[in-house]
Each structure stands twice: as structure tokens, then as C-alpha cells.
TrEMBL record:
The active site is at H409 (gmp-histidine intermediate). This is tRNA-splicing ligase RtcB. GO terms for biological process: tRNA splicing, via endonucleolytic cleavage and ligation. It catalyses: a 3'-end 3'-phospho-ribonucleotide-RNA + a 5'-end dephospho-ribonucleoside-RNA + GTP = a ribonucleotidyl-ribonucleotide-RNA + GMP + diphosphate; a 3'-end 2',3'-cyclophospho-ribonucleotide-RNA + a 5'-end dephospho-ribonucleoside-RNA + GTP + H2O = a ribonucleotidyl-ribonucleotide-RNA + GMP + diphosphate + H(+). The gene is rtcB. Essential for tRNA splicing and maturation. Acts by directly joining spliced tRNA halves to mature-sized tRNAs. Joins RNA with 2',3'-cyclic-phosphate or 3'-phosphate ends to RNA with 5'-hydroxy ends. Binds 2 manganese ions per subunit. PANTHER family: RNA-SPLICING LIGASE RTCB HOMOLOG. Its cofactor is Mn(2+).
């Protein structure tokens, strides 16, 4: 069995199956760990992921180790698939370790429809979803409003959506943090950010964001699947998007302010894209409040898309959405930093847990898990490519010890968008998916489909296998695409 591997001059030591460590050396503050099989490690080592992970260990206050999940790949400064838990008293908070698309995340909507109920409507359904749910770059949303309303969304999250008739109380109860960050402060969000967001509420955006109608193909843990309301051949809807231009602007604003206010602090870091504000500084408090507001915006954004999806299903299937039991299973963020208590060397400490392209995966018994799922563990949604299917997991028993309660967030890219457009033609990918797999895809352009071709992603089955064998996330069910709309 291989005990060490080297990629681009960085040596990793195998600690045990699927756990690789970059030993601490100057100027690293802690070791770095990669959770991957040898197959996934080959892909992770192929770009700058390992160097970025090693750089991340220099963020002041990093606890235990910086982590890369099985789906990790190169990002801006901090790797996608990265987890960093930083002391909230003596460390820092890093917009770079959260990312530009604050609260990019996923939600799954259950239905009582079966695949047989849907057959024959695929083309009508994908066209109707595409026509009624805004996607692509720029403006356009289900709700286009003024800055005062944006302020309410930023402060109140799903409370606002319930009051306005776009959400139910059950939707809130099945969302991470019940769809509202209590420490959100709209005043810490710039007018420019608010103006970018006011015309984008209820829109997918572009890139890897999507809405996908899926069918449940496999159940691995019947009791947990029953608690989640999942069964074989059931139709579900997966929504993946974030805080749009508003969240991007929040990140840009605070990176720039950190450069101006804490330039000396930033110079001590190996990469300016790791931009961070010292804990207890005014700028750290303001970023945390602004980030919380952008998190709320993203939850409302996904909720408005849910509302519109329910309306489309009502028209296509000529039934009320309540009759189709189109209830939210769960909504979970995967670009976020939150204060959480964690055990470090026998002491409980408050940490800023940064998850950038990583999903919270709390096990059974945690009070943060919705009451409906507390006995079985938090639902974790792992999207695959539009040709490979996705997984529903539950938070694993070892996640708190191994990963600060985290696991992967998807399949993870293996190819840049630029390269994908050279290697694939959108029309060919679209036709192949329909002819070979009966998957109907609709997007703003062929280039978008080429960028998101199944071949540009890691093997989601392998990502989930590693997660399960490490005990950080247990497979509950697998789904397969039927219809997919993209920006």
C-alpha cells in the first residue's frame, strides 16, 4: 500500500485509508489533510488545490488542520472543497475562504409523483421550467423590487418569503438555520450590492447553477429514507444556486476594504485571495453581518424558484402543488462561514467554520438539525453531473471528529470551463443525453452545456464512497436526472 504521494513538489503521507496529510512545516500553522481515494487524489493533485490548501494553513487561528473534501479542486485562494475552522476570538474570518457566491447551496423538493406519472411530459416540463424561471447572466428575477424590500429580505430571510406568500412555515423548518441568519445586518451591505440584487430575486444565474427534475433510483437506508420522505421511482426537484450579483458584490467589497484597512495583515498571508479580517476587528464584525444578509438573500432566492417550480408543476400536471405534496426536504448551504462550537483538544471553542464548496453534515442528535430529522441526522445533498445523478446522504457519526461536521458538496470539476468548451460541443452533449439517457436539457447557450458536460466532473459515486467509508456522510438515496435547465 502506498504510504506517500508527491504532486508538484508537495508530499502527502497516508495516515489511514482515504486520509492524506501534508505535514506541518514552516510557515504552515497546522497540517493540511486531504480526504480522498487514490483515484480522486490523482485528480486533486493535478491543479493548484494542494498548494492552495497548504497556503490556507497560514490563516491565523486555524485549528487542527485545513481540510480538502473528496471533491476538492482549485479555487480562488482557498480551494473549492475546503474546510477551515478558525478561532473566533484570536483568529480571523476570510471572505476568500467563503467565496464570491455566498450561500451557493442546494435544496431538494419532494413530490408524490412517480416516473411513470411524468413520462411523456418531459419536453413540455423542461420548456415550461426554462420559460418561467429566469437564468443566465445579468438581471431578471421572479421578483424585481426596490432596495427597501431587498433590505427586508437581507434582514429577515425566509420570514419575508412566508409573509409574502412565497413560502410556508414547513419550508422554513426544513431549511438550514430555518432560512434566517439572526446576525444578518443589511446596513453592512453596500448600496451597489443591493442594487445588483433587487432585479435578481428568484433567478438561477449561470455557470454550474441548475434546476433538475430527478427520479429516485436507489434506496440504501430504508429507515432514513422514510424519515426523509423518499422512496423508489419518486420524482424530486433539485435546485442549485446562490446569492447572485449581490453576494458577489459583498465579497468584492470586503476584500477591497480588507486590502485598505488591514494591508499589513494581508501581506502576512501567502496569497492575497485569502483576504481575511482579524477576529474582533470592526471589519470582521461587518463582514459577518453582511455575509449573513447575503445568506438570507440566497435562501429567499431558492425559495422563489421553489414557488415558481410549484406553479409550473401545477400547470403541467393540472393539480395543486399541495396535492402533489411538493414539500421541501432540505436546503443546505455550501459556501458559508458560521460561528460554531467545536471540541479542540478537549475544550469547546467557538470557531468560524469556513466551508467553501463543502456541506455541513451534522449527525443525529444535534439540535441544529430540524426536529423531523434529528433522530437520523441532517440531510446532505450531493449533486453530480447532469449525466450521472446525485445523492442524498445523512450527516455521519464521525463528521464532528474528522471534519468539523462537514462533507463534500458535489462531484467537483476536473476540467476548466475554457478547456470544456474546446473539448465538447453543447448541441452534441444535449443530443447524447436525450438519446442515450432520456435526459432533457435546456440552457441559454450551447457553450453553457459544453462547460457543464458530464465529462468535466469527478465520479460522484467515488466521492460519496469515500465520504461514507470515512463516516462523515452516509448514503441514503440516489437520484438520476430527467430534465435539467441551466443558465
Amino acid at each position: 500500500m502506498t504510504t506517500t504521494r508527491e504532486f508538484q513538489g508537495i508530499t502527502l503521507e497516508r495516515l489511514r485509508e482515504h486520509v492524506w496529510e501534508i505535514p506541518q512545516e514552516e510557515p504552515m500553522g497546522v497540517p493540511a489533510r486531504v480526504l480522498a481515494s487514490e483515484e480522486l487524489l490523482e485528480q486533486i493533485g493535478d491543479d493548484k488545490t494542494l498548494q492552495q490548501l497548504k497556503n490556507a494553513t497560514q490563516l491565523p487561528g486555524m485549528q487542527k488542520y485545513a481540510l480538502c473534501m473528496p471533491d476538492g479542486h482549485q479555487g480562488y485562494g482557498f480551494p473549492v472543497g475546503g474546510v477551515g475552522a478558525i478561532d473566533a476570538e484570536t483568529g480571523c474570518i476570510s471572505p476568500g475562504a467563503v467565496g464570491f457566491d455566498i450561500n451557493c447551496g442546494v435544496r431538494m423538493i419532494r413530490t408524490n409523483l412517480t416516473y411513470d406519472d411524468l413520462k411523456g411530459t418531459e419536453r413540455e416540463l423542461v420548456n415550461s421550467l426554462f420559460e418561467n424561471i429566469p437564468s443566465g447572466l445579468g438581471g431578471g428575477g421572479i421578483v424585481q423590487t426596490d432596495v427597501d424590500t431587498v433590505d427586508e429580505v437581507l434582514e429577515r430571510g425566509l420570514d419575508w418569503a412566508v409573509e409574502e406568500g412565497y413560502a410556508t412555515r414547513e419550508d422554513m423548518l426544513h431549511c438550514e438555520d430555518e432560512g434566517r441568519r439572526p446576525d444578518a445586518v443589511a446596513d453592512y451591505v453596500s448600496e451597489k450590492a443591493k442594487n445588483r440584487g433587487r432585479n435578481q430575486l428568484g433567478s438561477l444565474g449561470s455557470g454550474n447553477h441548475f434546476l433538475e427534475v430527478q427520479r429516485v433510483t436507489d434506496i440504501y437506508q430504508a429507515d432514513v429514507a422514510d424519515a426523509f420522505g423518499l422512496q423508489p421511482d419518486q420524482i424530486v426537484v433539485l435546485i442549485h444556486c446562490g446569492s447572485r450579483g449581490l453576494g458577489h458584490q459583498v465579497c468584492s467589497d470586503y476584500v477591497r476594504r480588507i486590502e485598505q484597512k488591514h494591508g499589513d495583515f494581508l501581506k502576512s498571508l501567502p496569497d492575497k485571495d485569502l483576504a481575511a479580517a482579524p477576529a474582533k476587528s470592526q471589519l470582521a464584525a461587518e463582514y459577518y453581518g453582511a455575509m449573513g444578509a447575503a445568506i438570507n438573500f440566497a435562501w429567499v432566492n431558492r425559495q422563489l424558484i421553489t414557488h415558481q417550480t410549484r406553479r409550473v408543476f401545477e400547470r403541467v400536471f393540472d393539480r395543486d402543488w399541495q396535492d402533489m405534496e411538493m414539500e421541501l426536504l432540505y436546503d443546505v448551504a455550501h459556501n458559508i462561514a458560521k460561528k460554531e462550537p467545536h471540541d479542540v483538544d478537549g475544550d469547546t471553542r467557538e470557531l468560524y467554520v469556513h466551508r467553501k464548496g463543502a456541506t455541513r453534515a451534522f449527525p443525529a442528535g444535534r439540535e441544529e438539525v430540524p426536529r423531523a430529522y434529528r433522530d437520523v441526522g441532517q440531510p446532505v445533498i450531493i449533486p453530480g453531473s447532469m449525466g450521472a445523478g446525485s445523492y442524498v446522504l445523512r450527516g455521519g457519526a464521525e463528521s464532528m471528529n474528522e471534519t468539523f461536521g462537514s462533507t463534500a458538496h458535489g462531484a467537483g470539476r476536473t476540467m476548466s470551463r475554457t478547456q470544456a468548451k474546446k473539448d465538447y460541443r453543447g448541441e452534441t452533449v444535449q443530443n447524447d443525453l436525450e438519446e442515450r439517457n432520456q435526459i432533457y436539457v435546456k440552457a441559454q447557450s450551447g457553450a453553457t452545456i459544453a462547460e457543464e458536460a458530464p465529462g468535466v466532473y469527478k465520479d460522484v459515486d467515488e466521492v460519496v464512497r469515500v465520504s461514507e467509508e470515512l463516516g462523515i456522510g452516509d448514503a441514503v438515496a440516489r437520484t438520476f436526472p430527467v430534465c435539467n435547465i441551466k443558465g
